[in-house]
Amino acid sequence: MKLSLPLQGYFDLLKHPPGAKKFVCIHCGQPVSGLYRQISSTVLKIIDCDKCKKPADKYIEFEVLIILIDLILLSKPAYRHILYNSDCKNLWKIGCILILLEAYCFWTDAFRGITSITYRSHLNDPFLSEKGFYLSTVHFVAGFCLLYGFIYLFTRALHRTVPKVTNNGKTYPHMLLHGVILASIGKFLFIPIIIWRENSTETGMAIHIVLVLMYFVISLVQIHSVVSDCVRSRSCTIVILAFFVKAYFLTRVSGLLQQFV
């Protein structure tokens, strides 16, 4: 009988050779050789971590909905499970969807309450209108690349002990990229702006956008602390510094793009 785990089809567990310490404990980050021991064809026993003596990864017994709730609550163990112990093959697709979502909000002037940048043409030309959406997409692709690049650079400068290879064998830049995408999931909260934009004031939308961005920054700090294995205060400094420098350079990029509108 084939054993079927609750995460099958969503976040499959990584496949590693027996004895290779490529998984990590979700509580302390200590490398472990495995997450569970198969007692019988239908019974699993979760392996305890040698360092903290807690179950190495309790989420292998949880349904996906519970894991998503813990991700929303910014749980470090949930982040470690997704980043280190799961095979997130479709995480890049989530990143693409989020960039298109933000680009659509920008294109429809949903963000006009907190910025003066717009790519919507005043001419009633369908081609120019579609062109504005593509420019908005370029805007947010550039913003994502700048944010990732500055976080990486500031981490190298301020946290010199970052390993080239993380506990699960993947390179640090690769794991940091996955972390930035995972932190961006909170931007799905921009969807209510699209739905109720006509019934909201600019002040209300601006407050909504600021709250979503604050949630994004907090989740990015949590994930950076997990991936870089540093204290929250240092992660907070690195992320906020990267966020403001990215905003400065993105304003320059936006000025160049507005010339094509």
Automatic annotation (TrEMBL):
Pfam families: Arv1 (PF04161). GO terms for biological process: intracellular sterol transport; regulation of plasma membrane sterol distribution; sphingolipid metabolic process; sterol metabolic process. The chain crosses the membrane at residues 132-155, 175-195, 207-225, 231-250. Mediator of sterol homeostasis involved in sterol uptake, trafficking and distribution into membranes. It comes from the Eukaryota. Belongs to the ARV1 family. It is found in: Endoplasmic reticulum membrane. InterPro entries: Arv1. It comes from Anopheles epiroticus. Keywords: Endoplasmic reticulum, Lipid metabolism, Lipid transport, Membrane, Transmembrane, Transmembrane helix, Transport. This is Protein ARV. It is a multi-pass membrane protein. One of its GO terms (cellular component) is Golgi apparatus.
